[in-house]
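In the design runs reported in the main text, the only information available to the sequence generator was the tokenized backbone. The following block is the verbatim input for one such run; it is reproduced so that readers can re-run the procedure and compare outputs position by position.
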């Protein structure tokens, strides 16, 4: 191990003998009390020295080997240490891709803050390259999500949509103006390639076997140009994903409301069918109106504010990446909504319905949630 204090966490002295790592409460940690020698030793934790050399240099500060080992263990337990050589073979391979590493330094830094184990940030970034995500929709929301996922290191991002690119599909970070008139799926594929970091890895055997079906997908992001299909998703469309156990996340804009979620874990959280049954329980006229909305002929371009669409795409992509990195984001079994002009994001839980065939109603909530604690203190003196 070559211990390195995580450079992404800003340091500040809270007093004469206590230092705080990190600014915001979500990840801030305080360390103390520190004597002058221990404070000086912290400056040696820059990833260039292994433990034997650290112990040797610590002796010049009158610090014992035991003191050094205990301090390093406590720093690691508090999530304050990284190791520039850790992460496993996939991380090592990524380190040799200089262009990709330079471009994704901010992503690695962020992952190192979120995931405490030394080397875990780069390990998770490397793991993304073996993942496959399907984005259904190449409008203002879907295309931007696909670009962010590709630019964040996801190895394969497939985009499905029909028709040709219209002028109102164009958005910064999404389809460019030059794509007008091109097939949407073709334009989206080009966008994904341009956004990719250092090129996509070769398809694995599992990917090649799953070309014609949904198995093998890490996640489906449902972001159709028609926001009604997100606000009131059709259970029949989601049926094959439920049957194959494929996680899927909804995201879109309807009129002047942005929607992110739910992230559906088949058999574990509420799905499109649960949502439909719940709405019918609450409003007996809902099915009648929904049938009219779905069957009505629409000639007008759907309302989709560019700023709101960009915010929805960013939030949805962040939730998708959090899930791909092994966490359960706030959209798991819940829906986030924000409406113009106030843009006050609010969350609503989408609970499993007893009458839904997805089977999620039998899942206990404790098996699906993870709790994150507040900033904590660690003593090393």
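Verbatim output:
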């Amino acid at each position: 191990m070559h211990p390195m204090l995580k450079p992404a966490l800003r340091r500040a002295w809270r007093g004469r003998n206590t230092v705080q790592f990190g600014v915001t409460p979500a990840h801030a940690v305080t360390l103390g009390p520190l004597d002058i020698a221990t404070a000086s030793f912290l400056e040696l934790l820059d990833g260039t020295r292994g433990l034997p050399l650290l112990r040797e240099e610590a002796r010049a500060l009158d610090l014992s080997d035991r003191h050094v080992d205990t301090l390093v263990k406590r720093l690691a337990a508090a999530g304050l240490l990284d190791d520039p050589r850790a992460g496993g073979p996939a991380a090592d391979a990524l380190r040799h891709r200089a262009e990709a590493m330079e471009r994704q330094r901010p992503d690695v830094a962020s992952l190192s803050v979120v995931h405490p184990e030394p080397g875990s940030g780069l390990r998770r970034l490397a793991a993304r390259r073996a993942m496959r995500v399907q984005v259904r929709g190449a409008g203002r929301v879907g295309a931007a999500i696909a670009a962010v996922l590709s630019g964040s290191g996801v190895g394969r991002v497939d985009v499905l949509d029909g028709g040709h690119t219209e002028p109102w599909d164009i958005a910064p970070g999404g389809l460019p103006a030059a794509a007008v008139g091109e097939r949407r799926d073709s334009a989206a594929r080009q966008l994904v390639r341009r956004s990719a970091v250092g090129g996509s890895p070769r398809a694995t055997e599992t990917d090649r076997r799953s070309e014609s079906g949904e198995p093998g997908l890490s996640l489906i992001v449902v972001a159709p140009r028609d926001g009604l299909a997100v606000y009131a998703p059709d259970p029949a469309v989601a049926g094959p994903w439920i049957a194959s156990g494929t996680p899927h996340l909804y995201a879109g804009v309807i009129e002047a409301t942005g929607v992110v979620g739910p992230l559906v874990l088949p058999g574990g959280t509420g799905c499109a069918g649960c949502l439909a049954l719940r709405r019918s329980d609450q409003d007996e006229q809902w099915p009648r109106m929904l049938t009219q909305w779905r069957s009505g002929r629409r000639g007008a371009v759907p309302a989709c504010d560019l700023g709101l669409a960009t915010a929805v795409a960013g939030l949805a992509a962040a939730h998708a990446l959090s899930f791909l990195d092994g966490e359960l984001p706030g959209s798991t079994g819940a829906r986030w909504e924000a409406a113009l002009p106030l843009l006050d994001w609010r969350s609503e839980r989408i609970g499993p319905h007893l009458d839904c065939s997805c089977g999620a109603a039998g899942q206990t909530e404790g098996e699906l949630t993870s709790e994150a604690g507040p900033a904590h203190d660690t003593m090393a003196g």
